[in-house]
Amino acid sequence: MRSKFIFITGGVVSSLGKGLASASIGALMESRGLTVSLLKFDPYINVDPGTMNPFQHGEVFVTDDAAETDLDLGHYERYTHAEMGKKNNFTTGQIYDAVISKERRGEYLGGTVQVIPHITDEIKSKVLDLADNVDLVIVEVGGTVGDIESLPFLEAIRQLRSDLGRENTAYIHLTLVPYIETAGELKTKPTQHSVKALREIGIQPDILLCRTSRFLTPQVKEKIALFCNVDKDAVITAKDVESIYEVPVAFHQEGLDNRLVELLNIWTGRPNLRPWDRLVRKVKNPKRSASIAVVGKYVHLKDSYKSLHEALIHGGIANDCRVNLNYVDCERMEKEKADGLLKGAHGILVPGGFGQRGMEGKIKAVQYARENKIPFFGICLGMQAAVIEFARNVAGLKRANSSEFDVNTTAPVIYLMEQWVDREKVVQKRDIHSDKGGTMRLGAYPCKLVERSVALRAYNRKMIWERHRHRYEFNNEYKEMLTKSGLKVSGLYPDGDLVEVIELGDHPWFLGCQFHPEFKSHPMDPHPLFRDFIKASLGNQRGDSSGKRQRGRTVSRKKG
Ligand code: GLN
Q1: Quick check: is 177 in a domain?
Q2: Which ligand 1 atom lies nearest to the CA of residue 379?
Q3: I need a labelling partner for 369 at 20 to 30 A (CA). Which of 239, 415, 421, 434 fits?
Q4: For residue range 343-394, what is the model confidence (pLDDT) as tens digits?
Q5: Parallel, antiparallel, or unpaired for β 169-176 and 207-212?
Q6: Is residue 557 part of a domain?
Q7: What's the pTM?
Q8: What distance in angstroms lies between residue 11's CA and the mean position of ligand 1's atoms?
Q9: Which residues, judged by CB distance below 6 Å to any ligand atom, belong to the binding site of ligand 1?
Q10: What are the catalytic residues?
Q11: In a domain, 552, yes or no
């Protein structure tokens, strides 16, 4: 087998940034010329992460091959060249589902089906499925050591060392080394306990990544090394950083990649981290700044708009611009004045979403952007809001709505297509009573852009592929009427004649897309729509005194 394996576990508390650490290790290994793939195991029982509430769980990341996955896969794609898909994320529910289906088919020949070996074998097979085509497979086990749920995954990765050999496997454990203000000290005890818990189940970590607010002194590293039975130079400081894009370089400075190639006995040249250095310099020292209002529902959970947040930052990088994001609660928008809540915004974005709550606030934000000629970017539900707003306030269809929110509307400009053709060209059927899972237009679809459009100027090519995740569509029955009133349809799904992009003339930058471009933006290769939206928002500052006042000042960031 060609691949070697890195297993990443987490201890002490959740939210230490295991996904970012895994992605950064991927980036470091690529910088040494190695090819990588990544895999995330999620210990929860849900079979379909797509139906999980973003309030609880953060964004659902969508891949080209139509998998609805954990948001960490977004980090993996942004930091590495690995393309994520269905094979890169499994939940406990999916693993059990696979085992139970095999049992039903009689594949276990009537034997007793057990966690060990059947569940663990299924987990191991998912790891091994990624091997062969890449030099390194990086496996992140979700959850925290000590959780009941993650035990089968930990047992499976423990077994893999005996199966694959010491030289082919490395275990990294991410822990917390808190600084206790009153003692004036970094505390190693939580790390010791966490490693103890890991060793009890048979895993001796090779490397400890210690998340901390200050550099670990040599004495602290020695202490951790002694108590946790690892080499001193395998204790790595994972210090908090200003920008998440600093992590690969910070890990390199601590010697993480050296240690890994030694452990795995891989011969590589020196890493080329110049692109990452350049990126960090750009992120930290932009010449300009712009304030963007994001009007949405999930404004209180940091992770619900993860890819969107990053794509906007990337749009800033492309324009040498710091993007100050102001997340505006669309329910507040329903009750309060738009010009109060959106004051000082150089650009307004309405993101994707589901459900009626706050929808009228989103429509109000579109109207404000349209009438005041503020650059506007509507994504998925945001595009649907733009179509509804235009139909109501420009085309005179006063009761225009999406049938998602008003099944009896007399003007369903956005509606549920009951029959449609999916990516595999299979005819799918659904109605309002269909299951929530598995009935969406999901994954990458082609879209053809029309001449002289804002979209074509951004992409600079006629055929694009973007990722979808929605049920409702622009209703072609209203196409002629809306276009006559001035709405421009600038992107179409060629096979189904579905409207994918809309624009407005006589506006500095107004674009709505039915797909989610944020899933395909990279820090090193910012998405063209985000690049141009930020560019237009910067343009909106010229001669605008409120914009000028904003320059160089950090507007309060409600979300990190
Ligand atoms: N709720 C809308 C639909 O299902 C939009 C979905 C989205 O924004 N991702 O079509």
Answers
A1: yes
A2: 8
A3: 415
A4: 999 999 999 999 899 999 999 999 999 999 999 999 999 999 999 999 999 9
A5: parallel
A6: no
A7: 0.92
A8: 36
A9: 352-354, 380-381, 404, 469-472
A10: 380, 516, 518
A11: no
